[in-house]
Design goal:
Blueprint: H1 10-34, H2 37-44, H3 48-76, H4 78-102, H5 105-137, H6 142-166, H7 170-189, H8 206-211, H9 214-245, H10 249-277, H11 279-282, H12 290-299, H13 303-315, H14 317-323
Helix pairs in contact: 1-5, 1-6, 1-7, 3-4, 3-5, 4-5, 4-7, 6-10, 9-10, 9-13, 9-14, 10-13, 10-14, 12-13
Length: 324
């Protein structure tokens, strides 16, 4: 992407800040819950397999939300779609809080489906807005926005670790997110760029045409593979530290924080690598750094070595998913 010589308009700069906040808020909401999965399992009396099925509710809702996001963004614009997604996310967390307080799995499962739907719509809508701001700025912005998402996950993991260390119940932590999250997002989307009718015009069949391109299929396969491994790490690092090594919940949350901190570093470096080396080199040896990290996490006997595993593992997949 070329850089324009004229300074950006104030409205575009405000929109850039606003969309960065929505990216960070999305990451914080996700990490504040997922960093404390051992507590979720304990509070609901689940086995490890039961926890996996519960987390599948989240993933299923997110997948279901993706095809809904396009029509919602087209009809209401990115700002309103982000706000609807944040509202569904908060409502989902509210149901999870009810499940945690009562010890009932059903409200928690329904809540995670609702959360997944909301975050799926939110994710697509904020990316649409980010791409529009990037186009109007005339310079690379998306890698920085995704780094902002990762920074939000680091913050959320830190909050989760601090709450676990202080003995704060997860229901109280998520209840705070339910109250604060919609307010932050509502204030942010007010600064989004105005929607123009011509911005939503699409050529019929353009998406199907893109999927007939072999390079699109290759990129999609790479993203699928690394998203699978990243998702596995997101869901299970904290539990693995608690079950596999007898660590406390706080240490599990810190290990998850190391993983997302490494992803933040990787995302922040993608833009520079892309500008200098191009996408193919960004997708070269760097993503495979996650495999030594996985081996270190699985085989290390001491806590410092185990913490190095998530750091190494988190740096790899960001090169593929953001370069693609």
């Amino acid at each position: 992407m070329t850089t324009t010589g004229a300074p950006p308009a104030p409205a575009i700069l405000r929109a850039r800040t606003a969309v960065a906040i929505t990216f960070a808020a999305n990451g914080l909401a996700f990490a504040s819950f997922i960093a404390r999965t051992p507590t979720v399992r304990e509070s609901l009396g689940l086995t490890t397999g039961g926890l996996g099925l519960l987390l599948l509710c989240l993933s299923g809702g997110a997948v279901a939300g993706l095809p809904l996001s396009g029509p919602l963004v087209h009809r209401f614009g990115p700002g309103r779609a982000v706000l609807m997604g944040a509202g569904a996310t908060a409502a989902g967390f509210a149901l999870v809080v009810i499940g945690l307080v009562t010890g009932l799995v059903v409200p928690a499962g329904i809540g995670l489906v609702c959360y997944g739907l909301g975050t799926g719509v939110w994710d697509v809508a904020m990316n649409v807005e980010g791409a529009d701001v990037e186009r109007r700025l005339g310079r690379s912005l998306m890698p920085k926005l995704h780094a902002g998402f990762s920074l939000g996950t680091v913050t959320g993991a830190g909050i989760g670790a601090a709450c676990a260390a202080a003995g704060v119940p997860l229901a109280v932590q998520l209840g705070t997110v339910v109250v604060v999250l919609p307010v932050v997002v509502a204030l942010s989307v007010r600064q989004f760029l105005p929607v123009h009718e011509d911005a939503h015009e699409r050529r019929a069949g353009s998406a199907l045409t893109a999927w007939r391109e072999p390079r699109t299929l290759v990129v999609g396969l790479l993203v699928l593979a690394f998203a699978f491994t990243e998702g596995s790490a997101n869901d299970w690092i904290a539990v693995a530290m608690v079950d596999g090594y007898g660590a406390s919940e706080t240490v599990g949350a810190v290990a998850f924080g190391c993983f997302v901190a490494a992803m933040t570093l990787g995302r922040s470096r993608v833009g520079g690598c892309w500008s200098v080396s191009g996408g193919s080199r960004c997708c070269g040896p760097r993503p495979w750094s996650r495999w030594p990290g996985c081996c270190s996490s699985c085989s290390a006997g001491r806590r410092p070595s185990r913490s190095a595993g998530p750091c190494c593992g988190g740096s790899g997949p960001r090169w593929v998913s953001r370069s693609g």
